[in-house]
Amino acid sequence: MKKMSKTEKFYLWTIVAVNLAATLQHFLYEWIPCNFIATFAPVNESVWEHLKLTFYPTLTAFFVGWFVLRNEGDFKKNDFVASCLTAVTAEVLTIAAGYYLLHSGFGIGIDVMWVDIALMVVATVIGQIIALHVYKRAHCVRACMIGSAVIIVLMIAAFVTLSFVPPRLPIFIEP
After folding, report:
1. What residues contact residue 141 under an 8 Å CB cut-off, 6+ apart?
2. Cα(107)–Cα(5) distance, rounded to whole angstroms?
């Protein structure tokens, strides 16, 4: 069996780190209710606020990963940034789609915590598998890296703005 590279191990450990961080992050605003914390921790039980639980820990993991892996001989910075965008997008979409499929599609009218936790874990696994595939196969040019970074910044801006000024749409309303 082929030995995993340091970069491949990063994607695997990110699954664990994101889920552990999300567990603590879920209660952070209850413990420290201030606007700074509200930018990256859920302030209510809406689906939108809970998307922060995968978005910010994944970004943090990739930020740390950049500094840990950047001097590795096989590190591909353009592909790494593109895979970060892929990971956060796949995770957020999986959680949103999974939530609405389970609650609307199958009519589960009650919140079942273990189902929500399982959805978070599944979303993180899916996001990291797809991100690793992108990292290994993408061969992004510099423009791809810059475009990915710009989209990530826009996503951060959307999370911050829409947390403080949420529109009256179902994803922003507490169930």
Report:
1. 78
2. 43
Contact between 43 and 162 (Cβ < 8 Å): no
- Nearest Cα residue to 119 out of 99, 143, 134, 140: 99
- In the numeric block, which tokens belong to residue 80? 């790494």
Q: Indicate the pLDDT class of residue 102, thresholds 50, 70 and 90.
A: confident
Rounded Cα–Cα distance for residues 165 and 59 (Å): 22
Q: What is the mean pLDDT of residues 14-18?
A: 97
Residue where the block lists tokens 């895979």: 83
In our burial notation (b when 16+ CB lie closer than 10 A, e otherwise), range 117-135 reads eebbeebbbbbbebbbebb
Report pTM: 0.91
**The amino acid at 77:** K
pLDDT of residue 108: 65
Task: Give the chain's count of helices (H) and strands (E).
Answer: 6, 0
Query: How far is Cα 81 from Cα 104, in angstroms, rounded to an integer?
Result: 34
Tokens for 38? 């509200």
How large is the C-alpha radius of gyration of the chain? 17
Do 54 and 89 contact (CB within 8 A), yes or no?
no
Rounded Cα–Cα distance for residues 87 and 90 (Å)? 5
